[in-house]
């Protein structure tokens, strides 16, 4: 390759890197600006939240006056209790959901039986179907069964997550089958193979599935609103909605509650992102 061709190749490579960098910066800003606006609005006086949006200026995203009144309003209204309820519900969802989803993924990805592909297809269809379309009739069924205003009613519909099952199944299928055959020769049963071989090798996939279960449960609004309207068992998203009334909307408290409820999954995702990436990468390598 001549010197001119090398320079042209290097120039094209720099251009590609520059375009990719610009796209990455744009995507980051697109994701961060709404979070930043919520944070800024949570520490502004009520009258300043929307004052600087038209026309846009630096004051639109940078507060000139800071106040903690919105967070004090949250604490005065007992917002800590719904946050604790959300944590309890999310933790039990993760524990129970990982047990059920890993067992289902093992059966659909490792075992061999008639109708396996059909059941896996049903799992995908169930995941692709919007849960909101089923929420009202399902809430009536569970309410009639005595699950109204209970933690069980909040947790049960979330433990069987189709996306978590799919991620675990794909990861299980990439574990060498020779390990399974060797375990069977040693007399291992299916449950022992799952808990002694597959799960210890699937830490990234388990963490990824746990994040999926957590995020879906943590941000759920319609289902908790239907199945647990009692204030004593309200979760955080439903409690935030209570600050929007027919005659008055406390935007400061809404933004403050949003910041608190977004901070917890954000910290978890930042901590576990390497495991999530490893899980996704592992599903495509055989």
From TrEMBL:
This is Multiple sugar transport system permease protein/putative chitobiose transport system permease protein. GO terms for cellular component: plasma membrane. InterPro entries: MetI-like, MetI-like_sf. GO terms for biological process: transmembrane transport. Belongs to the binding-protein-dependent transport system permease family. It comes from the Bacteria. Residues 83-272 form the ABC transmembrane type-1 domain. Signal peptide: none annotated. It comes from Micromonospora olivasterospora. It is found in: Cell membrane. Its main location: membrane. It is a multi-pass membrane protein. Keywords: Cell membrane, Membrane, Sugar transport, Transmembrane, Transmembrane helix, Transport. The chain crosses the membrane at residues 20-39, 87-111, 118-142, 154-172, 193-216, 251-272. Pfam families: BPD_transp_1.
């Amino acid at each position: 390759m001549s010197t001119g061709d090398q320079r042209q190749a290097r120039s094209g490579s720099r251009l590609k890197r520059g375009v990719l960098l610009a796209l990455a910066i744009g995507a980051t800003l697109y994701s961060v600006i709404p979070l930043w606006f919520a944070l800024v609005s949570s520490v502004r006086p009520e009258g300043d939240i929307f004052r600087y949006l038209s026309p846009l200026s630096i004051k639109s995203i940078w507060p000139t006056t800071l106040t903690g009144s919105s967070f004090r309003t949250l604490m005065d209204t007992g917002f800590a209790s719904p946050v604790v309820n959300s944590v309890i519900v999310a933790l039990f969802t993760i524990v129970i959901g990982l047990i059920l989803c890993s067992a289902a993924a093992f059966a659909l990805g490792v075992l061999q039986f008639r109708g396996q592909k059909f059941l896996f297809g049903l799992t995908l269809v169930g995941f692709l179907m919007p849960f909101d379309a089923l929420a009202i009739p399902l809430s009536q069924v569970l309410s009639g069964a005595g699950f109204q205003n209970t933690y069980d009613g909040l947790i049960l519909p979330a433990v069987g997550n189709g996306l978590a099952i799919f991620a675990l199944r794909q990861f299980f299928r990439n574990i060498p089958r020779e390990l399974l055959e060797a375990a069977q020769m040693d007399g291992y049963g299916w449950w022992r193979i799952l808990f002694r071989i597959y799960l210890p090798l699937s830490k990234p996939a388990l963490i990824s599935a746990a994040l999926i279960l957590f995020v879906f449960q943590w941000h759920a609004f319609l289902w908790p609103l239907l199945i647990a309207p009692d204030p004593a068992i309200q979760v955080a998203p439903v409690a935030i909605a209570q600050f929007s009334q027919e005659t008055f909307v406390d935007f400061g408290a809404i933004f403050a509650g949003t910041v608190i409820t977004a901070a917890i999954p954000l910290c978890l995702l930042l901590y576990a992102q390497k495991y999530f990436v490893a899980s996704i990468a592992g599903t495509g390598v055989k």
